[in-house]
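JOB MANIFEST
job_type = single_chain_structure
chain_count = 1
residues = 251
[input]
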Amino acid sequence: MIEVKNISKKFTKLVGKKKKEEFFANQDITFTAKEGEIVGILGPNGAGKTTLLRMIAGIMTPTSGTIEVDKLNYQKNDIEIKRKIAFLTGNTKLYRDLSPYELLKMCAEYYGVEKDLIEDKINKLSNKFGMNSFLYQRIGSLSTGQTQKVAIARCLIHDPKYYILDEPTSGLDIISSKVILDTIKEEKKKNKCILYSTHYMEEAASICDKVVFINKGKVIIIAKPDTIKENTKTNNLRDAFFSLIEGDNNE
């Protein structure tokens, strides 16, 4: 289980030429994500979603609060936790001069996948995501959809317990998106825990067991999608979000 307790992240920005100003990207965020559960992290641009996910993935350090993964914390168990996690963000940079095959093999070796299993894992992932036609091409020459398939395959190669996925279907066509969403559903059936950030509210409503709505760095509600719609008397999560932030939105 992932336990996020009273997490805050403070940054300093320049206002004008010399004046500095502190602000919170996340403030006092608390929630849990259990095995076999897809938890949606939703909110507008600038809400603090990516900062939150980076902290949970151990890439950034919270200003205050704690994050525990299977009762372990990053201060004492950094490597052990990261071996349990796969992190994907739109800012993830793949090695452009490597082929998907080379990248997957490198990641498998890094995460300690048994050598006699690596080729079989790569072949299965290549078939699953339709990568056979470009498995040995340079990643830098691939399309957006092809590159995203490689990125998802990279996350799956070491069979992690936890997935932290930040906008995994952003910019993809409907076919590529379906492949990735189907994969997420399959991993849930294997009792994996998935944190899932997206701008596509309909997508979140269809796959998430519960939703953490964030606005201006703060949680405004945590509940099942149907419960949120019922409480706000709306028919979809998009309308529900606007109902929840009415009178407190500068977007």
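[summary]
The two ends are 34 Å apart (CA to CA).
Strands lie at 2-15, 19-33, 38-42, 64-69, 72-73, 85-88, 162-166, 193-197, 210-215, 218-223.
exit_status = 0
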